[in-house]
Amino acid sequence: MKTTMKVRARLSRGFTVIFLFLTVAAVIMVLQNMEVLEFQQEVNVTIPVPRVSTDPDMHQGFCTFQPLSPEDAVEEILLLETIAWPEPPLLPAPLSLNQTSDPAHSSFTILPRRGGGQWHVGDQLEVLIKMSDFQGLPKKYGGDFLLTRLHNRKLGAGVAGQVVDHLNGSYSAFFSLLWEGDAQVEVMLVHPSEAIPVLNRLSSEHPDRVFFKGIFRSGRLTETTICNICLRPTQQPLCNFTDPRTGEPWFCYKPKNLSCDARIAQNRMPAKPNPKNMLLQSGVNMKVYIPASGPASVPVLPKNEGQPEVKSSIVTSGPSGYYYQGDWRALDGTTVRHYNGRAIIQCLRGKVVHMYGDSTIRQWYNYLNGAIPGLQEFDMHTFWLAGPFIALDYSNNILVKFRCHGPPIRYGPLPIRDLHYIHDELDGITGGPNNVVVFCIWAHLTTFPMELYIRRLQNIRRAVVRLLDRAPGTKVIIRTGNPQELFETYMESDWCTLQRDRVLRAMFKRLNVHLIDAWEMVQAHYFPHNLHPEYPIIKNMMDLLFSYICPQ
User: Fold this and answer.
1) 3-state secondary structure string across 320-362
2) pTM tops 0.85
């Protein structure tokens, strides 16, 4: 009898696993078909959108994570499938630079207008990009990471292009023509396709190339040990500081003479050098412009009568906005207004602005401190990079707060009491129409496995849902990541940022939140890419922020 019950239990578990697998497969097929249809509707042409299936090793390397709920596990699989990147074919080892994509031997061509005739505002420009290797041989497969831009420096105009990989060495870039006058095309190779697997492996095989020092103290005795999300197995025992409520992982090697409870602070250690790889060379195949095979610009005439307006959404294909005369113009229906000190005060009067994130959100906090004359910052004797900071304009009843997000955060030394996760902070906000929540989380997590980022966003999203449920009038605004300058190391890869950017957009797509598309606002501007964008870009971001907070 007991044996029969055990057999039945095993069969039941087996059927449950099979049912879950079939459900996931069905949902993936539906989402893939929806994605193709959505893209084709956005670009208004019929293009074969490649889908490359992957079977990611969820526990590759030495990082381990707590089990997810069935719903979160399914979402994680779907998100990883959504951002699957085309992999190059198996090439003979060792791979030489000559076999990889060479921007100097590659080219782009502006295709004639569909239906012939001249270009007008509202039309769509299509560019064909053909990649070749360092021997001048055409590439036969895809996977290159390309960024494209259409611009006119004299008009202060610019818009990001949308790239489609045909998986045969050629790519299409699409641009909405949004201003009258010349429009110049730029195509940049950020990384060759052969380098993407290298970047992908780094996150799983070397997630500890950024690591931290835990400071433990009791009385006069102080010890330091290495801490991180992922620690390599050793004989040394571990202190497990994983958040018991959310499962956010954090570990330290245990001090020799102190208990785990003696941890008081955390500091960032100098990053370990990246493993050298000839597939990632500055000025050779990293962030290098691709030349045109003919004209690189087109003249654009005024819009034809009856031509529909260009519209888009920040979470779908197509540009979220563009620059004209140096001003950002959103394409989601938002009217972006200029805000000076008086207008900012009028918009924020009586409001509490909660800001969470990294130094790119701290830029916004500093902007407010400079733009509101009566805003006075309290000296809380906290670390100048991380906060927490509080500033108050008493006469206008404006309170602005900033706090860095929880670990991993590359600041220090930071007291443990100042390391708070965003989702915990959101749960402590009452909310309401006089509360504005602004956050970003991306730059400090790009060197770690994608699973960590997905789980962090799942926790933040749950907290956002709880906040909007108890206080529907709360404004929630999310800043995306952005392209940045090319460091001598490739620790801060734009490809890693792009992958996380795509995950963030997908996860918050159906919530009542606003996204400020820092990715496109940096990509479309004539200023060089920068982790901390130049003031004119920040000014446009803040004008968009205020336009979301005070739409009237």
Assistant:
1) CEEEECCEEEECCCCCCCCCCHHHHHHHHCCCEEEEEECHHHH
2) yes
